[in-house]
């Protein structure tokens, strides 16, 4: 029975990650058509700033599956702390680059994060 729960969880997480990647690609292509290379780069970086920390968190929590409750909770806290630090570091690095466009950067960042909310609503 535990294997089924883990398999379902993995399937849900992989779907969310896949949808997030798809959304980032589509929005980056749209911004590329609208504003060229600077918009496309900014959009892709915004997507990466959302995707990389979320992937880190998902992998960290997934590895704790099947362990005792205290270790799972500790893994959630460590994963969320790491996610926040990673997000801050990525934005710090992104804002060091020249010609970054704020609108595509933040639009794709927020859209990529919203995938999780829509996934919760769809369950």
Task: Write a structural description.
By secondary structure, the protein is an all-alpha fold. It is built from 4 helices and no strands. It has helices at residues 2-35, 37-63, 69-94, 102-122. α2 runs antiparallel to α3. The longest helix has 34 residues, at 2-35. The protein is flat.
Offer a quick outline of the entry.
By secondary structure, this protein is mostly helical. The protein contains four helices and no strands.
Set down the secondary structure blueprint.
Blueprint: H1 2-35, H2 37-63, H3 69-94, H4 102-122
Helix pairs in contact: 1-2, 1-4, 2-3, 2-4
Name the descriptors.
single chain; disordered N terminus; mainly alpha; 123 residues; 0% strand
Query: What is Rg?
Result: 16 Å
Mean pLDDT: 88
- Principal-axis shape equals flat
Number of continuous helical runs: 4
Which stretches of 5+ consecutive residues score pLDDT under 50? 1-6
Q: How many strands in all?
A: 0
Name the structural class. Answer: mainly alpha
Query: How many strands, which pairing sense, and closed or not: the largest β-sheet?
Result: none
Order of helices and strands: HHHH
Q: What is the first-to-last residue Cα distance?
A: 20 Å
The helical percent reads over 70%
Strand proportion: under 5%
């Amino acid at each position: 029975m535990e294997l089924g729960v883990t398999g379902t969880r993995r399937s849900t997480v992989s779907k969310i990650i896949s949808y997030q990647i798809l959304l980032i690609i589509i929005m980056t292509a749209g911004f590329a058509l609208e504003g060229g290379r600077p918009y496309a780069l900014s959009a892709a970086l915004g997507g990466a700033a959302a995707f990389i920390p979320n992937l880190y968190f998902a992998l960290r929590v997934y590895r704790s599956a099947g362990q005792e409750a205290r270790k799972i909770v500790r893994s959630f806290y460590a994963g969320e702390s790491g996610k926040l630090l990673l997000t801050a570091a990525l934005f710090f690095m992104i804002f060091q680059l020249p010609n970054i466009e704020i609108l595509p950067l933040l639009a794709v960042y927020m859209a990529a994060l919203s995938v999780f909310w829509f996934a919760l609503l769809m369950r």
